[in-house]
Amino acid sequence: MTTLLLVRHGETDWNAERRWQGHADVPLNERGREQARALAERLAGESIDAIYSSDLSRARDTAAIVGARLDVPVVVDADLREIDVGAVEGLTAEESAAFEGWQGEPRSLGACSRRDRPDRGAASR
């Protein structure tokens, strides 16, 4: 049986400030690096066969810290990125509420995943 373990990246300054990140390449902060090291120690006794990460530094660096501890290489794939949050990227939830049509989440303003983008469509499927 295969077990899939999904892990979110460690904290960034934008996470701490509750800002929409989307495709912005916001790096881990020190707390995020500490979280990644703690995760690596927690997983040290587990049998991990593969680690996949998006190409954004916050995810890639989290995966690299874990991969280094477990001696497992990281496969980087841009198709694993978060959704593109469009016009609200970098804004807080309160700031994004000023946009006409805002319904509490980025897709209400036309945000999309890489797979949904017309310029990626068939190439990523």
Helix count from the secondary structure assignment: 4
CATH architecture: 3-Layer(aba) Sandwich
Distance between the ends? 25 Å
Overall morphology? elongated
The SS-based structural class is mainly alpha
Let me know the CATH homologous superfamily.
Phosphoglycerate mutase-like
Q: Percent of residues in beta strands?
A: under 5%
- Residue-averaged pLDDT, rounded? 85
Tell me the name of the CATH class: Alpha Beta
Radius of gyration: 16 Å
**Low-confidence runs of at least 5 consecutive residues:** 120-125
- Largest beta sheet: what is the strand line-up? 1-2
**Helix proportion of residues, in percent?**
25-40%
- How many individual domains? 1
State the major sheet.
2 strands, parallel
Give, in order, the helices and strands: HHEHEH
CATH topology: Rossmann fold
Could you tell me the number of beta strands? 2
In terms of topology, how is this protein built?
Layout: H1 13-16, H2 30-43, E1 51-53, H3 57-70, E2 74-76, H4 93-96
Parallel strand pairs: 1-2
Helix pairs in contact: 2-3
Structure overview:
There is one protein chain. The chain is mainly α and 125 residues long. It has a single domain, classed as Rossmann fold, CATH 3.40.50. 29% of the residues lie in helices and 5% in strands. The protein has a two-stranded parallel sheet. α2 (30-43) packs parallel to α3. The protein is elongated and about 50 Å long. The model is unreliable at 120-125 (pLDDT under 50).
